[in-house]
Amino acid sequence: MAEGGEKEEFCFTALYISGQWPGLCARTDLQPVCPSAMAPSRKFFVGGNWKMNGVVCAPPTAYIDFARQKLDPKIAVAAQNCYKVTNGAFTGEISPGMIKDLGAAWVVLGHSERRHVFGESDELIGQKVAHALSEGLGVIACIGEKLDEREAG
After folding, report:
1. Whole-prediction pTM
2. How many domains does the chain fold into?
3. Which of 46, 104, 121, 132 makes an SS bond possible with 137, Cβ 3.0 to 4.6 Å?
4. Does 113 map to a domain?
5. What is the mean pLDDT of residues 121-138?
6. Structural domain boundaries enclosing 18
7. Known PROSITE patterns for this protein (predicted)?
8. SS3 of the chain
9. 73, 72, 71, 141: which is closest to 106 by C-alpha?
């Protein structure tokens, strides 16, 4: 509970991934794991497909280690992005090796913001996916359209 008896909100997004952890169920007793400076208005969200076999939490990069320490070990942790090469002068980018060093086993690639805000092409996302897989990360590949495209049919 937050100060004043108000219920504190969760701030990580968890995604169900099919085929990874048979028999795992989502926990409903998770404690808040975000410091007050980190998006306090975000709510814990679990999305799923019909198989509901596993849970992955994808916090911002700065909180990957924190999430790994606070979450149940049955809940995997993912980075929200990675780059297409192992090393080099790519300021602000994170490699699959760095992600694994932080305790994450997954990465989300191709998210709409990366495509539409940062202009990432299908070709670049494909290179990132191939590199992440070759480095031993699981990949959550985002494929979809913008809201206006979906609403237009």
Report:
1. 0.66
2. 2
3. 132
4. yes
5. 95
6. 9-58
7. TIM_2
8. CCHHHCCCCCCCEEEECCCCCCCCCCCCCCCCCCCCCCCCCCCCEEECCCCCCCEEECCCHHHHHHHHHHCCCCCEEEECCCCCCCCCCCCCCCCHHHHHHCCCCEEEECCHHHHHCCCCCHHHHHHHHHHHHHCCCEEEECCCCCHHHHHHC
9. 141
